[in-house]
Structures are given as structure tokens and as C-alpha cells.
Amino acid sequence: MKPAINYPAPTEVAPAALQAPAAGPHVAAVVVSFHPELAKLGRLLAALVPQCQQIIVVDNGSAAPVADWLQQHPCSVPYQVLLLGSNQGIAAAQNHGIRCALHSGADHVILFDHDSCPAPSMVAELLAVAQAQQAAGHRVAGVGPRYLDTRQNNPPPFVQRVGWRIVRHSCSGPETAVPVDYLISSGCLIPATALRAVGLMEEPLFIDYVDIEWGLRAQSQGYRCFGACRAQMEHDLGDAPIRFMGRHLPLHSPLRHYYMFRNAVWLYRQPWIALRWRLLDGWWLLLKYGFYTLFARPRRAHWWHMSKGVLHGLRGQMGQMGRAQ
Prior knowledge:
By secondary structure, the protein is α/β, with parallel strands linked by helices. It has two domains: 11-235, Spore Coat Polysaccharide Biosynthesis Protein SpsA, Chain A; 241-315, no CATH class. 37% of the residues lie in helices and 24% in strands. The chain is built from nine helices and 14 strands. It has a six-stranded mixed β-sheet, sandwiched between helices. Strands 6, 7, 10 and 12 form a four-stranded mixed β-sheet that branches. α7 (254-268) runs antiparallel to α8, α7 packs parallel to α9 and α8 (275-295) runs antiparallel to α9. The N and C termini lie close together (11 Å).
């Protein structure tokens, strides 16, 4: 049985300046903020106004100045702020925003972290790919952009597991869309029909592997995710990367490594996950365990949190660390 976690209802702030949404599909942006840099958050909201018909900001317990700024931020599209009061995790925050968007009649929901910023045509590119794939007979779970970490200047490829191989789609050819197993949540456009069929995000994961779990769950139910080669977004992945053998590799805090390893092990135990996916991803997880133990500092803290995460994943101890059930 999955652990039950009770969350308080969020405090809703009345929408700011409203105007009638533009013609076309109703796209609602759900932005999750957690102690954001206000300049970055403001830049994201400004980029979303001409691209979305609705913006919902879900704040995961940031300090009072952030809440005040969110309430006062002017916006020329329907704009709502949900103040959760405490950090309930990315999955719960996304679900609060998704429910609000679906209740408002959104045709698509697009998720964002507060430190992302879409290119001016990103949402239109994602919509075009979603509509084309649906016209081709595919049940679309989500469509995501290529993202650029400005600290690395190296857009990563879209990843797909084919049999026992990992295929990396670099979008170097004429293709406009490529199939993938899952997408990172920030920038992911999800049709409302897929959300209703597949379900919402798995809240006990709290953070990390939330997008992977949802994408694989959708895949197991006959839905498909696609990467949109022409859609672009800036997004900071993790902390400052580690430089190793001429490459910049993403680095997270010891706490994030706890969630990453715990949730990965939990996911491997789900009966609908294919054996080959468990083995392939498990191999990469093992390599990460060795790499971060040796090269991420402080080494002992990373090793301890990763090891504790594996143990809790095997036990099924989920939720927020320190409150895991």
C-alpha cells in the first residue's frame, strides 16, 4: 500500500489584472516556486504572458517577501497564486496547480520550475508537435523542449531506451519531433486528456523522479512522450556542475541525492516497470553512486545520503526526509 500523506489546503490569492484569453487552445502554465530569485521568476512570468492563456504560481513555502511579491506582480492574463505555506514537495505543488488548471477548463497544462525561461515560440512549437502526433494517431502524454543550461552551453539530447540500448536523439537532422521515454517536468506540455487518464503526479516521491515516474506510467498505459526539436528553453539543472574529463556533469546537493536514489529504487520495485528499464537505469544509478562518492564534496555527506536513500527505497519509506512513512 502506498503511504498516505495529508497536506493542508493551499491559501489562494485572488487573481491580479485579468484579460480575456487569446484564441486557440487553453494552455495553463503551472509554475512551482521555492525561494526563487525574483528577477528570474519575473523573467519567466514575462515570457509566459504572450504564450499562455492562464498562469498559476504555486509557492512551496517561500519567505514572506516572495509571497508579497507574487501577490502584487502585475499580469495581463488570468493569474492565480497558491501559497502552500510549507514545502510540500514538487509533486504535491504541481498537483495543486494542475487541479486548478483543469478546473478552469484548460486543454493543456505546461509545467515550469521557477528558474526556467522559455523561448518566445516555445509553447507554439510544443502545441504544433502535440497536434501533429495526435493527428498521426498517437496518444500524447507530453511534449517537451530542448533545454540549455547556461552554465554548460551544451543542450543534452533526448533519451529513449530501445530494447537494451539507450538512443540519444540530438535533433541534428530534419526531424521536428522524436519519441522519448519521459521528459523533465519543466517545460513539459501535457494534454488535459492525458492527465485525466494517467492521473496526477506521485506525491510521496516529494522531489526527483517525479517526471520519470509519470512518463513511464503514461507509457505503460499506451501514451507516448515526444521531444520537440525546435522548441527551446533555458533551464538550470542542479547545482554548479562538476568538470570531469573535459565534460560538465550535473551535480546536486546531498539531500537531493537522497531523494534521487530513494525514488529510483522505489520505482524499480513497481510491477509495471519493464525489467530492461530497471536494469539499464539501475546500472547508471550504480555508476552515479560511485562517481559522486569519489568526486562530489563533501564526499561523506553524498555517500551517506545516497546510501540512506537506497535503504529507504527498499523499505518503501517515502515522503519528505525526516517525515518519511
